[in-house]
Amino acid sequence: MSEGTLEIEKSRAQVIEGEFINIKQSSIRSVEGGHVEMQRVGALTIDGEKVDVMQGATCVIKAEELNLNQSICMVTVAGEASINSSCSLVTVAGNNINEINKSAVGVMAANNIKVENTTSLIMIAKNIEGNVKTVLDWRAALAFGAAFGGVLGLIKILSKK
Question: What's the pTM value of the predicted model, to 2 decimals?
Fold first, then answer.
């Protein structure tokens, strides 16, 4: 890994590694570093201690501390996460999701979640604080899973004949 700050602007790269990384208006395959800041960047994977993404699109983010602002991400795994005006398919936090504000999350799981004006498909947490619209609670998710499993089982039985 390189020491100091690595700055990249308006370029394409395969793999970037460094302690402090600042990327603007670029497309990157993989980023690995201590503190990663990204603005208007498309990336496949990001792995870092502290990751800040503003107006970016990523597939997978793994971070100890994550700030996602006006961005889209498929899978997010973090110790602590803050999501603002963003969309994430799956967000898992080991400790807390400190703030989710005006966002859409498919599935989110954490010990504690503070949420404001957010929509979620499934939310799993010990403590939930704030205003959230969840499509499936645990009872509905259980019923949906049972019905889906029953239909798949019936299709499997009928297809053998």
Answer: 0.78
